[in-house]
Amino acid sequence: MELLLIQVVLLLVLPFPVLWIILRVKAFWAARRGPCFFQPFHDIVRLCKKGAVFSKTTSLAFRLMPSVHLAALLTAVILVPMSGRGHIASFEGDFVLFAYLLAAARFSMIAGALETGSPFEGMGASREAAFAVFAEPAFFMLAGAMVLAGGKADFVTMVSAFDGRAVLTTLAVLSLFIMVLLEGARIPVDDPATHLELTMIHEAMILDHSGPDLAMLQYGAALKTVLVSSLLVLVVLPEQLFTGSAGPWLRLASTAGGVCIVAALIGTLESFMARLRMTHVPQFVLLMFSVSLVALVSVLLLF
Amino acid sequence: MTEWLVCSSFLLVGAAVSVPMVPSVLRAKLFFSLALFSAIADSIAVAPVFAGDATISGQIFFGWPLGVAVVGVERLSAFFLMIVAWFGLPAVALAGRFVPGSSGARAHWFFFGLLLLSMKLALVLDSLLHFLVVWEVMSLSSFFLVLMGNSGQQRRSAGLHYFVAMHVSVVFLMLGTVFLPEGHMRFSMMSGAESALASFVLLMTGFAFKMGLVPFHSWIPEAYPAAATHVSAIMSSLMSKLGVYGMLRTVLSGGFITETAAWLVIGAGILSAVSGITFSVIRRDIKEILSYSSMENLGIITAGIGLMMLGSVQSNAFMMWAGLAAALFKTLCHSFSKVVLFSAAGLVERAGVGRDIESMGGLSRRMPRVSLVFLGTAWASASLPPFGGVISEILLVLSMVAGLSTASPLATTGLVLVLVLLAMTGAIALLTWTRTWGIAFSGEPRSLAAQSAREGRVWESGLLWVPLIGLLLMGLFPALVLEWVSPVMDTIAGATLFPDASLAAWPLVHRAMISTLVSLSLPIAVFGGMVFLLLLVRWLLLRKREQGEATTWSCGWGTPDSRIQYTASSFSDPFVSVVRPVLHTEREGESVSGYFPETAGCHHHDDDPFRKKIIGRIGVFVSGVFSRFSWIQSGNMQQYILYGLVWLVAMLVWILVVA
Amino acid sequence: MVIPFLLFLSPGLAILSFVTRRPGFDRWLLVVHAVLYCGGVAWLACEPAAWAGYFESDPPAVLVLGLLSIVYLAVAIKRCLDGNSVSDLEHRVWHSLQTASLLVFVGAMTAAALSNHAAMLWVFVEATTLASVPLIYASRTKTALEATWKYIFICSIGIALAFIGVILLMMGMDQGASLYFRDLEANAGSIAPFWLKFSFPFILIGFGTKAGFAPVHAWLPDAHSEAPSGISALLSATLLNTALLAVLRFSGILDAAGFGQFVRDALLVTGFLSLFVAAVYMLRVKNYKRMLAYSSIENMGIMAIGFGLGGAGALAAVLHMIAHSLVKGAFFLTAGDILHAWKRRDIAGASGVLATWPRTGWVWLMAFIAISGLPPFAAFFSEIMLMSALLEDGYPVLLAVFLLLLTVIIWGMGRGVLSVALGPVRPDLAGHKRSAVWPQAALLLLAIGIVFAMPQPVEEFLRDVAAILGVQRGLR
After folding, report:
1. Is residue C53's pLDDT more than 90?
2. What average pLDDT does the structure give for chain B?
3. Percent of chain C, pLDDT > 90?
4. Which of B109, B473, C360, C403 is most buried (most C-beta within 10 Å)?
């Protein structure tokens, strides 16, 4: 029970350090000092304390959507088994619900963006929806491969399905890492630091949000990064390392650590890579598709 | 029980006959009350069928050539009867708002009554010939309703297209019937016949037409939009379900479920799902979008049926249970959601905005109630939690996962492929629903009509909340729904699951699956609760703060207007440009050249390749072949006499040679 | 007694009509005649009769006459309801001539149906041609003249061939042998097989010309298009049946002689050829009355296939004959109303009927549904029975061809029918006097009622007809 609670709390808290690590790593590579540890937290709190300005074009839906967005992601929190054991909601097919919760978050984001009638937000929304069309089958393909290898369709079995098979694990990690970048709206898919609306995806869609709504969206984006990268880390760390009664706790801690490493990776990547040209992003997403496909085919051949 | 069924039928007959005769102000109310009473009577009639092992059976004696009509209501019929009786009621209640102008109104009400009646009768008849008669009456009444829809010239071509499709479909059904020997022409007796496999294939094809599965869907995006809104709603949410009923009934008759057949059904289903939703992304008529989405949903239902069949072939009770549950669950969900979506689109159309989503926009401020219910249902239609759609997707995945354990390597590959296509369908559905909602309802008005659109009465859109709440409850309590449906599933399992060992495992499977669904309720409830919690927090945070209004940020533009907004085509372009090679695209105008082009214009139109390429080409081909022979009729008398002579000589030669 | 009554009633009243020359009177005269005629046929149906050696009622004759009387009654009532006043003398004479010809035409068909003698049958079939000539030339226009000329010319050639056929048949027989059908069938075995078989193509093409079989159907679209619609209704719904009856009476002889397979093949080929020709033209037809004429060719083809199959197929064909006669009668009468008001024969010109005249439009649409073979109309049942028969007799390929051609025909016809019903509305017709629709509606209702409430005796009667007319598959 405590394990579950701590798991939830950890997932809820992790977005702040993750954001901080990314900023710090980027600052390090740029030879700057970077913000203090609590800066991301302060940012969110600051937004929560503010009032809000709404566009005259928008209606009730615009005000609802950020809350729905965050609610979907918070629900996903109880599905991701960071400790490698069952979570609050672990059942056959939970990965489907996870994917659909991410989709729900996406829907609310897009719907909110289109509410404003802004061409930039329409542009971002359009890209977000289109990339998902390729990313989602890729995720399911990977999931299919894991189910095929593990024999069961819940996250707990799936994440350890590739244990001991380095090639498969690498493929899965590669595919999931692209998913992290895509879902978290990170370089090379999207540039959170850009100031040019025409090149934005996620940032374009939140242009007109303010106050607590913006806070929810910002926090949600970070949470999404944490959720997907937790899965990534769970796939990397083999189950055999964490036996015994302290195993789950150990695994929980190491997953959290792993998520921080992923964050550092993201920061490094962002420092050394430019955002892809918008026309090349679909190809990048298709890379995830092909990696998953290779994983699936190898599983089909192996098992 | 039987008397209640008779009573319900007579109420609908009464509706069809009496409603056209009463003054026009009373018609809608009278019709609705009769339909409501008929639904109540139906429920009383089939309750015992559902509760126990009772079946309603009876015979109606006709002379030759009709013969004896056999009535047989068992659980499957009862399940669909309940859908037909209740789920269409919101559309029936709104019918008064959508019946086209005075000239055809009487006939319209008559055929609407006939449509509802024939749908019910089709569900209670066991003998195939009579089923076919009623089935055709159903198709015909909907055909006339399409002809009397309110959309000018479109209805003529739509009507013709529908008529021909309907005819081809009934030809398949007729063939399926005549392939059966005398005495086996009943749903419940098909299995014993030797030619059952041929019948099976033919009947399934016939039903696929009604469901609009690829490649038999071409009439759907023409006929649904051409009909008046309440008719489109009924056709999409109920009439197409009769195709599902027919398929299930055919499968239920058992005996010839093979692996090939199962894969054919799965393939037809998943391909319909993917292509239906892809085509919905390229259309801009809101009713066409809804029609294609209907095709997608029926595809998913079909895939569920196919998985069930595969499970039955492999004696895999888990797979079968989940596939069947997914199909039935999706049937319920789709019946709920399409009524709302079509009705909401109809209310928008009635507000003078039309059906082209590129000339809507800004409705979420001008028609807030309709917009909100549309948003909710669009959300549900994209199979997102907390509504019911996601449950059927999960069940489908569970069915496939269960199938992996018993499938051959080839079948495993197939199942994973279906899984991927299903995911793709879901993602495209998200694209199409955000596009439809976002372009049609939000943003700035894209036309003067949208600018001045006003909402109708509260009850009109208020009524539509009922199915939406139904969808929410289905999402929250899937286990309850499936417990309710379980008699139907038991019947199907009893008829198609072999050997006895796997049938004996069925109750265990049932319990295991139900417990999975119960645990599924938790996260969905958490999601719902979380939304309220966050809204509360947000309200608390904003309560004392300043809230302002401003124009949308537009990077230097003063006020955003509709001309700089993203359009529906531009919204879907990143996706459509990838799939364009498989679409039918018409392009007009030249590309821009030079630094200062004088004139430039480009018109781009994407369309359904099946409709334009295949069906269009079949039409052209057939006309071409037959017009090759147009020389027969030259108007030249000598030539005609010559035919007679040639014919005579040919016959004489025939006699001399053969005899 | 009833046979002479039926035979002489028509010419008698024809003389009366020609003497009085009063159109108003003529209209009622026709109705009275039709009612009396119906009564006579009903009597005949209850009590088989024979008269003067050459006329005898058997079930097929009663069926053909029954259909004739029903459609004729509807036509007469329709004429009476919609009659236009004719004032000048010339028109009055012409009008009386029309009425008289119509009566003689009906009389000739009656005689042809009742003839039990090969030569008499030939004589009266020829008489129907002659009697109907003035009817087709009714509008006295250039095109009507052309149609009439084609009609006489082609039908005369046909009837001449039929005559040759009868002579060839006689050549195979002993000198002075009887030409009564019952004797012919009884002695079929003793007819020289060569001459028997040799005569059949002549008979089939000869009488088939009148029955509208392809490829000798050429008169049919023109004549149906030019004749007044009541006459087209009678031509299509009754004359074709009578001619078909003639063909089948002769084919019965071959069947009895053991050449059933040959007759069946010939009828199947003819039937499919007719379907094909109808399909070719249904896709290009511009004139809605011609469209209905092609549909008649199609339906005669279906009947030929059914009778050729024999057994269940023949029963289907009998039912189809009933369905086609009733529905086509209604269809032509409705087409006549449209032509009368719109003054256009082309599909593009006569449009928007449903909006201008809803009732006429509905009957028009319903007639289309009925002729397309959709339930609840009788043609659905005949077609499904025919499909079943084709399958049972081992012709799955023909079944597929049959369905394909039928679908093409329905497509082509649907295009025309829907365009007439729903095309652009002509505003100038809003105030035009509406024509009565209930005679046609009654025919259509009958086409539904016949399947839902078929009395037991009628069913047995139809089975008798099928047993007599269908090819028995007697193989030597």
Report:
1. no
2. 88
3. 52
4. B109
Disruptive mutation site among B566, B567, B569, B576 for chain A (greatest number of A CBs within 10 Å): B566
The whole-number pLDDT of residue B321 equals 93
Q: Is B548 left (phi over 0), alpha (psi -120 to 50) or beta?
A: beta
From the CB coordinates, do chains A and C have 3 or more pairs under 8 Å?
no
The pLDDT tens digits of the residues spanning C355-389 come to 888 889 999 999 999 999 888 899 999 999 999 99
Q: Which residue has the higher pLDDT, C270 or A89?
A: C270
Residue whose C-alpha is closest to residue B199's, from B211, B186, B216: B186
C163 neighbors B649 (Cβ within 8 angstroms) = no
Among the listed residues B168, B157, B160, B237, the one whose alpha carbon sits nearest the alpha carbon of residue B209: B168
Over the stretch B106-129, which tens digit does the pLDDT of each residue have?
888 999 999 999 999 999 998 888
Q: How many domains is chain B built from?
A: 2
Degrees (nearest 5) of the Cα angle B160, B123, C327? 40
Is the pLDDT score of B150 beyond 70?
no
Domain count, chain A: 1
* Percent of chain B residues topping a pLDDT of 90: 48
Could you please report the per-residue DSSP string of C255-312?
HHTTBHHHHHHHHHHHHHHHHHHHHHHHTT--BHHHHHHHHHHHHHHHHHHHHHH-TH
Query: Is the model's pLDDT at A187 over the cut of 90?
Result: no
Touching C (3+ Cβ pairs <8 A), the chains are: B
Which of C216, C279, C454 faces B643 most closely, judged by CB atoms?
C216
Q: Give a yes or no: residue B596 inside a domain.
A: no
Structural domain count of chain C: 1
The secondary structure of residue B543, as a DSSP letter, is H
- Range in B202-216, C169-183, C269-283 with the lowest mean pLDDT: C169-183
Report the gap between the CA of B255 and the closest CA in chain C (Å).
23
Most confident range (mean pLDDT) of B378-387, B492-501, C12-21 is: B378-387
Length of chain B: 659
Which residue(s) pair with C117 in the sheet? Answer: C180
Confidence of residue C476 (pLDDT cuts 50, 70, 90): very low
In a domain, B69, yes or no: no
Domain boundary among B539, B559, B574: B539
Residue type, B338: K
The range of the structural domain enclosing residue B324 comes to 279-539
Tokens representing residue B85 in the block = 């009786």
Contact flag A213-B572 (C-beta cutoff 8 Å):
no
Contact: B626, C283; criterion CB under 8 Å: yes
Task: Determine the distance in angstroms separating the CA of A142 from the nearest CA of chain B, rounded to an integer.
Answer: 9
C229 touches C448 (CB < 8 A): no
| B497 and B642 belong to one structural domain | no
Please indicate whether, in this complex, the C-beta atoms of C154 and B178 are within 8 angstroms of each other: no
Q: Which residues pair with C51 in a beta bridge?
A: C55
Residues of chain A neighbouring B405 (CB-CB closer than 8 A) = 151
- Partner residue facing A296 (CB), from B416, B427, B541: B416
Q: Are strands B56-61 and A52-55 parallel, antiparallel or unpaired?
A: unpaired
B285 DSSP β-pair partners: B356
Rounded CA-CA distance B42/B1 in Å is 9
In a domain, C242, yes or no: yes
